[in-house]
Design a protein that fits this description.
extended, mainly alpha
Length: about 425
């Protein structure tokens, strides 16, 4: 039986033509065909070059595949390393010149507090004279408060010594009773050891006192530099910021100016809010301690005012000092009431004052605030704990301002004008 032939391939049987067509369909075309052919040639000639037939070390010309997750992680990793190195360098530089950094920060705080007052006075007085009047009046107010506190402590000195002596005796008798049942000789031995320690380390204490005096000189120098900076910030801060922005390249000038304005609004709002919260806490603590009959109510209220500048942990520490004073002067019952006061003040501050007063200036989660305070305390002690939250708030505000588009800014301004028209 004679097989049919293909007209295009004379002499080729139809069965062979079908096999050839099927093989052609299985063979990849284009670049894939070339790659497959080169792979077959490599396998056939794998013995050349000393690599054997496996081809494990041969160069096939194909890059190894990398997981997209690994590629993305590596890209983020080196960027995070660069940013971390930059942040570490900035903090190291500030640590070397921390007195200057603290002075500038205090100058900004004074400017945020007194610039509205200077603006009101500048309506009737020349700007430099208005700044001088506002600054001198604030210095006189602070010195007056400190003088009042010192006078209060000096007037109660004799009573305090008598009450503290009696309070220590009550604490000793309380510790001797159940459930503690401490040995009276052990308490006497502790007092003797404290006396021997003070006498044996007298030279160390004297040197510490002298270093403390040098520290006092450094503090006074920082305060003087802060006042010097605040004078120029209040008088010509806008011109100084404009000059700084003018030194930058043109493409980034407007964005830096916008971020700076947003950061300054946040810093001003935070400063006003934290001062208001601290003042309310100090008034509440002072009234409560006075009602409980705890001595040094005014100095402890002032301590509460300054401690409130450290969010979350400042107020409890100040009230713990008040509890120790109450325990030594009034006994365990009043000290327990002061401890209860710690809880009440903390609830008022966390659930009432901060949401109402601070929410319009700073929108940070409490976890972020806590981590910022602890990180700042680890990096720079008490100063770092005070500076951490406003610094993080300013950075976040600047980032949010840079993310906004011109259309969003226009819409926000339009909504603000509409609300002002409705209120009017």
């Amino acid at each position: 039986m004679t097989e049919r032939t293909d007209p295009q391939h004379s002499g080729e049987p139809t069965a062979q033509r079908r096999l050839r067509i099927r093989a052609a369909r299985r063979t990849p075309r284009g670049p894939a065909r070339t790659a497959a052919r080169s792979g077959r040639e490599h396998v056939e000639h794998g013995g050349h070059g000393g690599h054997g037939g496996t081809g494990a070390g041969a160069d096939t010309g194909v890059e190894p595949r990398v997981s997209p997750v690994l590629r993305t992680s590596a890209a983020y990793a080196w960027r995070l390393l660069v940013v971390g190195t930059l942040v570490y360098a900035v903090f190291s530089l500030l640590g070397r010149f921390h007195e200057i950094a603290v002075a500038v920060f205090l100058g900004l705080v004074v400017t945020a507090m007194l610039r509205p007052v200077a603006g009101l006075l500048a309506r009737r007085l020349p700007r430099p004279l208005a700044v001088a009047v506002a600054l001198l009046a604030s210095i006189a107010l602070v010195l007056g408060i400190l003088a009042f506190v010192g006078e209060t402590v000096a007037g109660e000195r004799a009573v305090l010594e008598r009450e503290f002596g009696a309070g220590i005796g009550r604490i000793e008798r309380w510790l001797e009773q159940p459930p503690f049942r401490l040995n009276p000789e052990a308490l006497t031995d502790i007092q003797a050891r404290i006396g021997r320690f003070l006498s044996d380390h007298r030279s160390t204490l004297i040197s510490t006192a002298l270093s403390g005096s040098r520290r006092l000189v450094e503090v006074l120098t920082v305060l003087a530099l802060a006042l010097f900076c605040s004078v120029f910030f209040m008088n010509s801060g806008d011109r100084q910021w404009g000059w700084f922005c003018a030194q930058l390249p043109m493409p980034v000038r407007d964005r830096v100016a916008m971020a700076g304005r947003a950061g300054w609004r946040t810093f001003t709002g935070y400063t006003h809010g934290i001062v208001l919260v601290a003042a309310i806490n100090a008034v509440l603590v002072g009234v409560a301690l006075w009602a409980l009959g705890v001595p040094l109510a005014v100095p402890l209220a002032l301590l509460e005012f300054f401690a409130a500048f450290i969010p979350l942990i400042g107020s409890p520490i100040a009230l713990a000092v008040a509890a120790v004073v109450a325990l030594a002067s009034e006994g365990p019952l009043i000290a327990a009431l002061v401890v209860a006061l710690i809880v009440i003040i903390g609830q008022i501050e966390g659930h009432l004052l901060h949401p109402i007063v601070m929410s319009w200036a700073v929108s940070l989660h409490p976890v972020v605030v806590a981590l910022s305070v602890i990180g700042g305390a680890i990096a720079a002690g008490v100063v770092g704990a005070v500076v951490a939250v406003p610094l993080v708030s300013v950075i976040w505000s600047a980032r949010q301002a840079l993310r906004r588009t011109p259309e969003q800014d226009l819409a926000n301004r339009t909504m603000g004008k509409a609300r002002a028209t409705q209120d009017g």
